[in-house]
Amino acid sequence: MKNVNKSDIEKKEDYDPFQNRKVEKPSSDIRSTANLIKASLGSGLLAGPLAFANAGWGVGIVGTIIIGIICGHCVHILVKTSRGCCKLERKPLLGYAETAESVFLNGPKSVRRYAYLAKIFSEFALVSTYVGVCCIYSVLISDSIKQLIDTYVPSVILPVEYYCLIILGPIALLCQVKYLKWLAIFSFLANIFLVLTYLICLYYIFGSEITLADKRVAGDPWRFPAFVSTVIFAMEGIGVVMPVENAMKKPQHFLGCPSVLVVAMTAIVFFYSTLGLFGYFRYGDVLRGSITLNLPLDDWPAICAKAFIALSIFFTYPLQFYVVFDIFKKHTDRYIKDNYRNITEVVARIIGVGFCAGIGIALPLLEQIINIVGACFYSILGLIIPATLETVFRWQNLGRLKWVLWKNLLIVIFGIGTIISGCTVTILDIIEILHKKIE
Fold it and tell me: Which residue, 275, 220, 215, is CA-closest to 43?
């Protein structure tokens, strides 16, 4: 096996992965864009104002744009690397973990022995990240329902953990959907509810006079890691990228300009920065983990917003869960007989949803879970791994002055710094919250 270089790739140019793909239920460009937007935006969008409160509005705007560019670039290099591996392997498509394995198998001799380890590590990162996301979604849906029930049915006061249990059945039922094409319908509905929630939030933000005198251009530097963690959580949907690209009817439209990726990332940065900026201007430092939790409880548009975001996250849940179950399915399919396959999948999906809800019940701290998932899991999955894979794949062709190496080294350093600083700040926040509860 040879190192990857220009001559290797040129020899494989006769193989077109797109022409050899046979997707059972292909998705259109619009559906793929909807899936990609919805995979990123959700609870992270509504945490935007709190992120700006941590950073200050000036640092928030600049930081959001920079992080958006970095996240979009990492998606681009991951997909481009995966396509290069498809040509080398003469395979029509590769998933995230399969791409990691292929990169190391076709890389320099010194790293080929780590190919299987790279695959296992990537799968572990995927599962950890999206289990975390599903936990966050369980808590956010439950929080929204609890607020409404506590206000309008005061005779029924239950802790948020009980609502996590109550929503288990509907979520488990929705997660039985198998194909991304069908999930796109739910993503479309989720996007509608999310846009409506976004507009209602803007209605309340601009419904009264906004004062800028007490709003900081730059916040406390100690809180910057929390800002970065929250923004990365909101921007990243990289675990869904390969399934979405692999399921496209015209996958060649995923990259380029204009493209599915460019349109999706532009929309994500726009929605996040506008809501984050103006939400901070309106509510200042009293913001909660989701801006909808700051809205009044006695006004019907606010009631609709709380219901809409619960529905939006509810319809997004199966898209995130798809990543987790896809990995489980790949490892277990070979051991399951065909006549038991359907019932096994149904039971496994129910157990998976129950496991995610269980973690949400154990740690119902929405803001802190968001920061942990963003700082630790998404930094590894969305920044460090893609940068490492491109470097290994292009080891024999790193460009003039090895600019690819230096660029990816900066991304890895940024990712590691986010993990250390973000997790440190969040753990200290959790300790402070638990200490106050004990007192």
Answer: 275
Looking up tokens 């929705």 gives 174
Express each pLDDT in 353-400 by its tens digit.
Answer: 888 888 877 766 666 776 777 778 888 988 999 999 999 999 988 888
The neighbour count for residue 83, using CB atoms within 10 Å, is 20
- How far is Cα of residue 344 from the mean position of the Cα atoms in its chain? 27
- pTM equals 0.81
If you search the block for the tokens 């493209």, which residue do you land on? 259
The pLDDT tens digits for 319-335 are 888 888 888 888 888 88
DSSP summary character for residue 373 = I
State both tokens at 354: 């129950």
Q: How far apart are CA 384 and CA 256, in angstroms?
A: 23
Nearest alpha-carbon partner for 32 in 173, 300, 306, 237: 237
Residue 224: enclosing H or E segment and its boundaries?
A: helix 224-235
CA dist 254 → 48, 126, 142, 237, 363 (Å)? 27, 21, 35, 14, 37
Q: DSSP characters for 97-137?
A: HHHHHHHHHTS-GGGGGGHHHHHHHHHHHHHHHHHHHHHHH
Residue 396, helix vs strand vs coil: coil
Under a CB-based contact definition with an 8 Å cutoff, are residues 361 and 163 in contact? no
429: helix, coil or strand?
helix
Token pair of 42 as six digits:
């959700």
Q: Which residues pair with 248 in a beta bridge?
A: 27
Query: Which H or E run includes 289?
Result: none
